[in-house]
Write a structure and sequence with these properties.
The structure is a single chain. This protein has helices spanning 8-20, 32-40, 42-59, 78-87, 102-115, 126-130, 149-160, 173-187, 229-238, 279-294, 344-352; strands spanning 68-72, 94-98, 120-123, 137-141, 164-170, 191-195, 217-218, 246-254, 263-264, 270-271, 309-318, 322-329, 332-339, 358-364, 367-373. The chain is of the alpha/beta class. Strands 1, 2, 3, 4, 5, 6, 7 and 8 form an eight-stranded mixed beta sheet that branches. Helix 1 (8-20) packs across helix 2 (32-40) and helix 3 (42-59) runs parallel beside helix 4 (78-87). The longest helix is centred in the first third of the chain and has 18 residues, at 42-59.
């Protein structure tokens, strides 16, 4: 596929479907040409989000141990191909693909076989989903806004079979908070949170008074697309700001600590774990940390995030005398400020960096005195 091959009428039709923002009544892929046009444009933008997620996982020193991959709701298969290319096809034995559209499954399988000739690629059968076979790495990409309630329940059951999960969604308020709900449920089902969180406490986005906040980030698109007239045309026609790639994501893997039974808070919202300050929860976290050191999450080894790490939510706002940011760490969410004169180099770095915003701060209360990014 090249820009000369693009069928703009197909992209216009797909755009109308995507903008509806509601679960589809059936597959919206009508032909392999639909998938090819999507993969080259919209799919590539999703690929840039996956690239940024994978950069962050490299920074954190994490790799999945499992050698099998399931790309669930695969569409054109962009997520599976991006992950396998980044981690190395030699790291995996098999890729399984599933989508409610047989046309999409066929396209994704053909594309994966072309990209990774030595990798075993096959499509999931009904028996696969009714079985109990472990899933080494479960990939989920932009699926939540298309799922009815019954399908979400099935997805939760599928997640329980996975040894690790990488999940990327649009960075909208509604979808991000839905993803956070899955985080809480899976956190109580034997999973530890690898990223984006720097802690394993209850997500502070769900604290009272934080209803307007949501966990999201921005991926940098390749700089060269802004000088490419074809991408500029695509952006105008699709009504897309090419500079903005908001996303939300989760990376989780299994640890050996016992799951904490679910409880309900006074608001009637089911939580996946006990209160993080409860003695029982502290004991479980201690066991989880020990299990993480004995059973590292990746081939290269992985430990739970150091307690002093922070993750910046969204973008850093820059003003002439200071920068302002929403910070998430083990203590919760806090709005912090960095006076420019406190650390001019850090001020400039936060304005220019394209790297994931994972930092160690030196702070006095909500005032940042200095800091350094997590180095991989």
């Amino acid at each position: 596929m090249t820009w000369d091959d693009i069928d703009w009428s197909i992209l216009d039709r797909l755009r109308g479907t995507f903008l509806s923002g509601t679960p589809t009544g059936g597959p919206y892929w009508q032909s392999p040409e639909d998938l090819a046009n999507y993969d080259f444009t919209y799919g590539e933008r999703i690929g840039w989000k996956w690239d940024q997620v994978l950069r962050e996982l490299r920074l954190r020193g994490w790799r999945p141990q499992g050698r099998t991959v399931l790309d669930w709701g695969c569409g054109s298969g962009i997520a599976g191909r991006r992950v396998i290319a980044a981690l190395g096809a030699e790291s995996f034995d098999a890729l399984t693909l599933w989508d409610h559209s047989p046309v999409a499954c066929d396209y994704a399988a053909d594309a994966a076989r072309h990209a990774f000739p030595r990798l075993s690629v096959h499509q999931a059968t009904p028996g696969y989903f009714s079985g109990t076979e472990r899933i080494g790495l479960l990939l989920l990409s932009h699926v939540l806004n298309e799922l009815p309630a019954a399908a979400r329940d099935e997805l939760r059951l599928l997640c329980v079979r996975a040894d690790a999960i990488l999940w990327v969604e649009p960075g909208t308020h509604d979808v991000s908070r839905q993803l956070g709900g899955f985080r809480e449920q899976l956190r109580g089902s034997g999973f530890r949170v690898i990223a984006p969180c720097t802690h394993e406490n209850e997500c502070p986005m769900f604290a009272l008074g934080r209803e307007r906040d949501w966990c999201h980030f921005f991926a940098p698109p390749p700089a060269e697309i802004f000088a490419d007239s074809n991408w500029v045309k695509f952006g105008h026609r699709a009504g897309i700001d090419l500079r903005s790639l908001p996303y939300a994501f989760l990376a989780l893997d299994r640890h050996q600590a016992p799951a904490v039974p679910p409880v309900s808070d006074p608001r009637g919202v089911e939580l996946a774990t006990l209160d993080p300050n409860a003695p029982e929860a502290a004991a479980v976290r201690a066991e989880a940390a020990a299990a993480g050191s004995e059973h590292p999450g990746g081939a290269a080894g992985s430990a739970l995030a150091p307690e002093d790490l922070s993750r910046v939510i969204g973008r850093v706002e820059h003003f002439k005398p200071y920068a302002r940011l929403l910070n998430c760490d083990a203590t919760g969410l806090n709005e912090l400020e960095l006076p420019k004169r406190a650390d001019p180099a850090l001020f400039k770095q936060l304005e220019r960096t394209k790297a994931p915003l994972v930092y160690r701060w030196r702070r006095e209360g909500k005032r940042i005195l200095g800091g350094s990014p997590l180095a991989g």
